[in-house]
Amino acid sequence: MNEPPGIRTIRRHPLTGCDRQPAEHHGSTDSMRTTTLGTSGPETGVIGLGAMGMSFAYDMATPRDEATSVSVIHAALDLGMTLIDTADVYGPFTNEELVGRALAGRRDRAVIATKVGMEAIDPTGGPGGSPLVRPNGRPEHVRAAIDASLRRLGTDHVELYQLHRVDPGVPIEETWGALAEAVQAGKALHLGLSEVSVEQIRRAEAVHPVTTVQSEFSLWTRDVQAEVLPYCAEHGIGLLPYSPLGRGFLVGRFSSFDELPLNDQRRRLPRFQQDALRANLAIAGRVREVADRIGATPAQVALAWLVAQGPHVVPIPGTKTPAYLADNAGAAGLTLSPADLADLDAIPAPEGARY
Ligand SMILES: NC(=O)c1ccc[n+]([C@@H]2O[C@H](COP(=O)([O-])OP(=O)(O)OC[C@H]3O[C@@H](n4cnc5c(N)ncnc54)[C@H](OP(=O)(O)O)[C@@H]3O)[C@@H](O)[C@H]2O)c1
């Protein structure tokens, strides 16, 4: 019998070839609860994997070890974190290529979510020598981009094709209509939006169903709770929280600005500037307190809080580190008590804007 959308079930995952078990952490990873993305979207683990940081945005002065990143993607599939999030602009392009190489021979086990609608206009012209990017929602750009993404990903379709940003210069209906053509052509099974208002979701829905909305959402970024989160719950839309670990801050990775790697996007974000960062340490401390009290890790607490926001919420923590992946997977087996949730809900707003 088919389950109603958004209802979690317990399923066994084969765990072929995976020997990583974060036994010292609270939470089990020998199975992962699953949910569906939207009313008619694919089934995925309740926690996914963001691949961006394997190729882009963070710590770009340190050379990447592709074999380790590939092993992280393989382990994610083994652990049931089947939703793998990427974008054509990550790299640009190299992150999709990496995901494609990692999924060779494993394609049928992954739910690929990629994005279109941001383009790199100068490979080193952005802050700290990073690519300078801008929205491009022109229909002709979208039509060409899907084929290029599929080629890089080594597949003939993606489960989820997302509009990375709404282009202020192009009516959303036109951009979304071009994404819908990818569905009609069988190149994408479902469509998602990213960083949108309820009004923009409504306008897109009038053209083609919206399966997911991706937004920054974490213990220190809660803007979506006011409107987008309840709208998605009411309308059968999956919500994919990005940067769910506060780009590493919420799990205690950084205690001063100087600890941020060189050539790292976080160096230009207001919340990571020295004064704000120092003030925000209290937030990471509150997450740590709850984690210590219940025998979990801060990452598991931050992710379990998101999972508790509704059966339609599937966070996509990013990591290129095997131990962190196993840690994050453990959050799927962690149920926070009402008292834990109340403590986390009471964490104050951070100092500094998120962008
Ligand atoms: N739609 C959008 O506009 C948008 C924007 C940003 C991100 N995203 C998506 O969201 C995904 C996740 O966001 P994000 O990568 O920005 O932020 P994040 O998931 O909040 O944090 C990633 C950072 O946390 C570290 N980390 C991960 N798990 C950890 C653990 N258990 N313990 C300690 N540190 C841990 C990672 O380290 P290592 O990397 O060193 O392992 C990395 O530095 C991205 O990969 C991307 O797919 C989408």
Automatic annotation (TrEMBL):
It holds the Pfam family Aldo_ket_red. InterPro entries: Aldo-Keto_reductase, NAD(P)_OxRdtase_dom_sf, NADP_OxRdtase_dom. GO terms for cellular component: cytoplasm. Residues 29-42 have a biased composition (Polar residues). The keyword Oxidoreductase applies. One of its GO terms (molecular function) is oxidoreductase activity. Signal peptide: none annotated. The keyword Oxidoreductase applies. Residues 47-347 form the NADP-dependent oxidoreductase domain. Keywords: Oxidoreductase. Residues 1-42 are annotated as: Disordered. PANTHER family: AFLATOXIN B1 ALDEHYDE REDUCTASE, ALDO-KETO REDUCTASE YAKC [NADP(+)]. This is Predicted oxidoreductase. It comes from Actinacidiphila rubida.
